[in-house]
Amino acid sequence: MVASLARAGGNLTGVSLMNTELTAKRLELLAELVPQASVIPLLVNPNNASTERIISEAQEAARVKGVQLPVLKAGTEDEIEADFDALVQQQASALLVGNDSFLSGQRDQFVKLASRHAIPAIYPWPEFAAAGGLISYGTSVPAAYRQAGIYAGRILKGEKPADLPVQQALTFEPVVNLKTAKALGLTVPASILARADEIIE
Known about the structure:
Layout: E1 15-16, H1 23-33, E2 42-44, H2 51-65, E3 71-73, H3 77-89, E4 95-97, H4 101-105, H5 107-116, E5 121-123, H6 126-130, E6 135-139, H7 141-156, E7 167-168, E8 172-177, H8 178-183, H9 190-195, E9 198-200
Parallel strand pairs: 1-7, 2-3, 2-4, 4-5, 5-6, 8-9
Antiparallel strand pairs: 6-8
Helix pairs in contact: 1-2, 3-5
């Protein structure tokens, strides 16, 4: 859609939410929260154009952390259900949920299944933690909207989108649900609590 982040070059510019790029950081946080985890599957939507990038970034982070990273794919509610059954068979210690609009729309299903199977999981959006998920780490959407609003103002004052670099989001929000952590028998490290933008009790 743009020639490069530095120079959009066309009639479009904006703000990159960078949620795909945060995949490795999510795995690091999950490994810190569940240090005994040796198998952390990644669940992705195979229909998402960014899936291969998500897998690649997660695999590199898993290699650095020394954990196994089976890849599970789900593009339907039934496939999500089947993937949670597979987690139990693989003796997974935790779950990394990839950034995807379909998967994000299934947050109630994820939270219910993670609770039923006692699987610690990390998600890309704070709405998951608010709904009862263990932890989320992603871009602050309100902050990104503010960045986009500033750009809209500059364009309305006559600047050309082609001359405005695509900005990268600047604010990221770890959200921890302590009630869920307690239900899972997890003690959230002080290092994670200190970085959390929100702690749900």
